[in-house]
Amino acid sequence: MRKKMFATAVMAAAVLLSGCGQLPDLDEISRNMEAEYMAGALLKYDKNNSDMLEYDRSILKATPTPVPTPQAVVTPSASGETEESGKSDGKGQQTKSEDAVKQVSPGDALGLKQADIKLISMESKQTFGSADAAISAHTGKRLLVLRFRIKNKAGSAQRINLMKKQLTYTLEADGQTVGSPLMTILQNDLQFFNEKMASGRNSEAVLVFETDKKQKLNNVTVTVTGSDKTGQFQVQ
């Protein structure tokens, strides 16, 4: 009886395989393997079947396990900089970070030529400026007015224009950043200084910051940074 069932199953499998016009032609070995597999699949649920067919299971291929893509690892270098492993310049060499901003004098950071600038004083106020350009501190705040002296050291008159330069100014106390200067319409705001100065002439410029009244300000400095240079004024 079992042999008849087996023969019937094999014939059914053969009919199915030969009757499907869309399947590609299989050689004799492939057809035998398919027939054995389908017969085994039909008979494996028969509890009375003790002659389980042993077919070639190599035709059953498991889905391959995805292999994760290696990720770049950032490791610290001996100089304290971080390097990304596997990243090169195309010539087998590790790439390096850009050079740090160069430390120079405040005048050089401002791009002054044959001119000198000094921070001469700092004072705390609630209101500063003229009637046409007055600045008032907010509640609980105060204004810090830093005064600078600019001198033309050239042998002839020259225009000193800081308006077109991409400069940033930062107020620091005890090495901690306090803030940036207010944008004012004061004629002598250092951020917008633009004046033609005679040889040997001095002019005054200011930066105005707003800070909390309760904030302690010790070891105050003002850092000016250009595109690739930075300089620092020390409050005396």
Which secondary structure elements does this structure contain, and how are they paired or packed?
Layout: H1 2-19, H2 28-43, E1 74-76, E2 82-84, E3 102-103, H3 106-110, E4 115-125, E5 127-129, E6 134-136, E7 141-152, E8 158-161, E9 168-173, E10 176-179, E11 194-197, E12 202-212, E13 220-225, E14 229-234
Parallel strand pairs: 3-14
Antiparallel strand pairs: 1-2, 4-7, 5-6, 7-12, 8-11, 9-10, 9-13, 13-14
Helix pairs in contact: 1-2
Can you describe what's shown?
- With 236 residues, the protein is an alpha+beta fold.
- The protein is 17% helix and 33% strand.
- The chain contains 3 helices and 14 strands.
- It has helices at 2-19, 28-43, 106-110; strands at 74-76, 82-84, 102-103, 115-125, 127-129, 134-136, 141-152, 158-161, 168-173, 176-179, 194-197, 202-212, 220-225, 229-234.
- The strands form 5 sheets. A 5-stranded mixed sheet has the order 3-14-13-9-10. The protein has a 3-stranded antiparallel sheet with strand order 4-7-12, with no helix packed on it.
- A hairpin with a 5-residue loop joins strand 1 (74-76) and strand 2 (82-84).
- Helix 1 crosses helix 2.
- Mean pLDDT is 76; it is low at 55-62, 83-88 and 92-98.
